[in-house]
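Title: Comparing notes on inverse folding

I've been comparing how different people in this forum approach sequence design from structure. To keep things fair, I'm posting one structure and asking everyone to reply with a full sequence. Here's the target:
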């Protein structure tokens, strides 16, 4: 039995993106029956904060983190969260939850008058520190991923966690280059947070 050439294989299968490394998380649920997936929410994460290239983020999202491995982990002990995607500093892409399903990434949140952003959004975590800079490889991977998501889902907007949970969250923060992403995607300015487009 031969497999289809890569260019003939579907990019998406049941909400899983073929170009991402799949590591299924137990932390997800079904979206409301009437939900329309039309928002992308960007986050930043590093565990411990400011340390990159380990496997702690993947462990957190799969409920396998050793809470005793670092003092910081005691402050998040027992946390059950996930995101749909995670982009490492080198641009490597991981997926934890089908984009068809509801990942647990935004928490209490609101976008354009709609509460509970998890119901209608896709969450993307960038390996980084709130307020810190991100790598070119991450922007390249993010642009490609966002474009692929928008070809499959009716995306109308993209926002940071800080925009949907103001006062509670500050990521990805001022180090994230929104104009660069907008230019790369060539999406209209009204799809981006007004505070990022000048």
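Reply #1:
Here's my take.
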């Amino acid at each position: 039995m031969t497999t289809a050439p890569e260019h003939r294989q579907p990019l998406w299968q049941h909400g899983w993106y073929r170009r991402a490394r799949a590591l299924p998380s137990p932390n997800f649920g079904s979206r409301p029956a009437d939900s329309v997936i039309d928002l992308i929410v960007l986050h930043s994460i590093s565990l411990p904060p400011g340390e990159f290239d380990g496997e702690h983020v993947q462990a957190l999202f799969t409920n396998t983190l050793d809470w005793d491995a670092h003092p910081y982990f005691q402050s998040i002990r027992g946390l059950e969260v996930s995101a749909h995607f995670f982009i490492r500093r080198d641009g490597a892409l991981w997926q934890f939850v089908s984009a068809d399903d509801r990942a647990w990434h935004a928490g209490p949140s609101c976008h354009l008058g709609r509460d509970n952003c998890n119901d209608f959004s896709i969450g993307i975590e960038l390996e980084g520190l709130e307020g810190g800079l991100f790598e070119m490889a991450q922007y390249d991977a993010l642009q490609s991923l966002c474009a692929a998501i928008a070809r499959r889902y009716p995306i109308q907007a993209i926002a940071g966690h800080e925009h949907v949970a103001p006062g509670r969250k500050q990521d990805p923060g001022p180090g994230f280059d929104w104009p660069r992403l907008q230019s790369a995607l060539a999406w209209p300015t009204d799809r981006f947070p007004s505070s990022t487009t000048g």
